Automatic annotation (TrEMBL):
<feature type="coiled-coil region">
    <location>
        <begin position="267"/>
        <end position="349"/>
    </location>
</feature>
<protein>
    <recommendedName>
        <fullName>Competence protein CoiA nuclease-like domain-containing protein</fullName>
    </recommendedName>
</protein>
<dbReference type="InterPro" id="IPR010330">
    <property type="entry name" value="CoiA_nuc"/>
</dbReference>
<keyword id="KW-0175">Coiled coil</keyword>
<dbReference type="Pfam" id="PF06054">
    <property type="entry name" value="CoiA_nuc"/>
</dbReference>
<feature type="domain" description="Competence protein CoiA nuclease-like">
    <location>
        <begin position="74"/>
        <end position="154"/>
    </location>
</feature>
Length: 461
C-alpha cells in the first residue's frame, strides 16, 4: 500500500491530504469510471485508490505487481505511523509530503516536513524493520549532505540504534488517545547529574517542539552517556533529543565535575607533595639519628678501647710487679738457702772441732753417765748410738729412753737453737756446760753435766 500515486494530469497526489495535495477531490479518483490510470511512484506499476474498513484512504497496486516494489512491501503499520507523523507535522503548521524521493535518488523520505517558507526540510523516517547502525548513519549522512535534518522513529521496544542517530521510540497507548514518545527524548537532572528519558510526551507535541527548534538533538558528554530509562533500566546513548536548558544544565554540571576533578587532582597533588615532604623530613631525621648513633657508637668504641688500653697497662704493670716480686722472692730464697748452707757448713765445721775434743774413751764415759742418769731420773735405760751427727739433732747424738727421744748428747753449742723443745743436753764437763750456757738458747736446768775431767787421764805405768 501507499499514500502517494502519480496522476496522469495532476502529477503526484497524496491520499493523506484532503485536496490530495493538488486541488483534487478524493471522489475524483476513487471508483470513477472510466478508471484513471494512476501509477506507483516507486515502481511505476498501476495502482488504484482504496478506503480501509476504518476509513483510511490509500493506494494499492493492481494485481500482478512487481514483488520487489518497496512501496507495496511496506506494512499497514508502517503506513499508519507515516500518517501519524504527517498529521503531527501538519498540526505544527508545516507542510508534510509522504514518500518523497530525492531527484538524484540518494534518499526517499517516508514523510518530509517542509517549513511554510520552504527554507527548511526535515525527514521523518518510520523505521520498523531491522537495520544496521552503519546503514542508519550513512542514510543520515546523505540527508545531511542535502541539508535535511532527520528523525528516525520506531514503534518497537528497545531498538539497538536509539542514541546512535537522531531517533525516538514511539508507542500507541491502549486508550487510543494518540501516539506518544516513549524513548529518545530526555532531560538532564542536575541533582542526580544524569540524563533521564522523558516519557508520555504526545508525538504531536514532540514534532511541534522539534520543528519549532525547542527540542534538538544533542551529543551527550562522555561522562553522562549512561542514561536512565525509568525504573532501574539504563542504556548507553551517544545522541538524544532535548532542550537547550538541559544542554546548559549538563554543561554546567560537567564544568562542576571537571572543577571537582581538577580540585581533587590538585588535592591529590598537594597530598603527594606533603607526603613527599614528610618522607624527605623523615629521611633527614633518620640520617641525622643514624649519624648521631654512629658518633655515639664511635665514642663508645673509643671509650671501650681506652678502658681496655688502661686495663692492659694496669694488668701488664701488675704482672711486671708480680714477676719482680717473684724474682725477688726467688733471689731471697736463693740467698736464704745459701746462708742456710753456709750456716750448716760453719756449724758442721764447728761441730767437727767440738767432737774432735772427745776421745772414744771419753765418749764411753759420757754414755755411761747418761745411762746412769736415765736410770736414776727418767726411769729407763738410755739408747745412745754413735752415728754421724745431723743438723736436726744440733750436731749431737740422740738419746732415746723407752723409745722416746729425751735428749741430745753433746749438742754443738753454736747449734743449740736447733735443739727440740724440752730435750735435755748431756755434756761431759762443767766447761762444756758453760760453753752451752754462753751461747744461750737453753736454760741451765736442761743442761745435764757429769763433771768428767776435760783431759783424758794419763795412764800411769
Ligand atoms: Zn510500486
Amino acid at each position: 500500500m501507499a499514500f502517494t500515486a502519480i496522476h496522469p494530469d495532476a502529477g503526484r497526489i497524496d491520499a493523506s491530504r484532503i485536496d490530495l495535495g493538488c486541488g483534487l477531490d478524493w471522489m475524483q479518483i476513487y471508483r470513477v469510471r472510466p478508471r484513471i490510470q494512476l501509477g506507483c511512484p516507486e515502481c511505476g506499476f498501476g495502482v488504484h485508490a482504496k478506503v480501509s474498513p476504518r476509513g483510511l484512504r490509500y493506494f494499492a497496486h493492481d494485481p500482478g505487481r512487481p514483488p520487489e516494489c518497496q512501496m507495496s512491501n511496506e506494512s499497514i503499520e508502517h503506513h499508519l505511523l507515516k500518517l501519524e507523523l504527517a498529521t503531527a507535522i501538519r498540526a505544527a503548521n508545516w507542510h508534510a509530503e509522504l514518500e518523497v524521493r530525492a531527484e538524484n535518488g540518494l534518499w526517499r523520505a517516508d514523510v518530509m516536513a517542509i517549513s511554510t517558507d520552504g527554507e527548511r526540510r526535515m525527514a521523518w523516517e518510520a523505521q520498523l524493520s531491522p537495520i544496521t547502525n552503519f546503514d542508519l548513519l550513512s542514510r543520515t549522512a546523505r540527508y545531511a549532505d542535502s541539508d535535511i535534518d532527520v528523525c528516525w522513529v520506531s514503534p518497537r521496544d528497545a531498538v539497538p540504534w536509539l542514541g546512535v542517530v537522531p531517533a525516538i521510540g514511539v508507542a500507541e497507548p491502549a486508550d487510543g488517545l494518540g501516539w506518544t514518545v516513549a524513548d529518545g527524548l530526555a532531560r538532564f537532572d542536575n541533582r542526580n547529574g544524569a540524563w533521564f528519558v522523558v516519557k508520555d510526551t504526545a508525538l504531536e507535541t514532540f514534532v511541534r517542539w522539534v520543528l519549532a527548534g525547542k527540542v534538538n538533538t544533542h551529543f551527550i558528554l562522555d561522562r553522562y552517556r549512561r542514561i536512565h530509562l525509568g525504573g532501574k533500566r539504563q542504556a548507553r546513548r551517544n545522541e538524544i533529543w532535548t532542550t537547550d536548558k538541559s544542554v546548559q544544565l549538563e554543561r554546567a554540571h560537567n564544568v562542576m565535575r571537571e572543577r571537582q576533578t581538577a580540585w581533587k587532582a590538585k588535592k591529590d597533588r598537594e597530598e603527594q607533595e606533603a607526603e613527599r615532604r614528610r618522607l624527605a623530613v623523615e629521611e633527614v631525621e633518620r640520617a641525622e639519628a643514624e649519624r648521631l648513633r654512629k658518633i655515639q657508637e664511635e665514642i663508645h668504641q673509643a671509650e671501650a678501647a681506652e678502658a681496655h688500653r688502661l686495663w692492659k697497662i694496669e694488668w701488664d704493670t701488675k704482672q711486671q710487679v708480680l714477676e719482680a716480686e717473684r724474682l725477688a722472692k726467688e733471689e731471697q730464697e736463693r740467698q736464704a738457702e745459701a746462708q742456710r748452707q753456709e750456716r750448716d757448713r760453719l756449724e758442721r765445721e764447728a761441730a767437727d772441732g767440738w767432737w774432735a775434743e772427745v776421745s772414744d774413751a771419753q765418749w764411753q764415759e759420757l754414755v755411761a753417765g747418761i745411762d746412769n742418769h736415765c736410770l736414776k731420773h727418767l726411769g729407763g735405760r738410755a739408747a745412745v748410738h754413735r752415728t754421724p751427727t745431723e743438723p736436726k739433732y744440733a750436731f749431737g747424738i740422740p738419746v732415746y729412753v723407752g723409745g722416746w727421744l729425751r735428749g741430745i748428747a753433746r749438742p754443738n753449742p753454736g747449734s743449740l737453737y736447733r735443739l727440740g723443745e724440752g730435750l735435755l743436753a748431756f755434756v761431759r764437763s762443767k766447761r762444756e756446760a758453760e760453753m752451752l750456757a754462753a751461747h744461750g738458747n737453753i736454760t741451765p736446768e736442761r743442761i745435764v753435766c757429769f763433771n768428767l775431767p776435760d783431759h783424758e787421764q794419763v795412764q800411769l805405768f
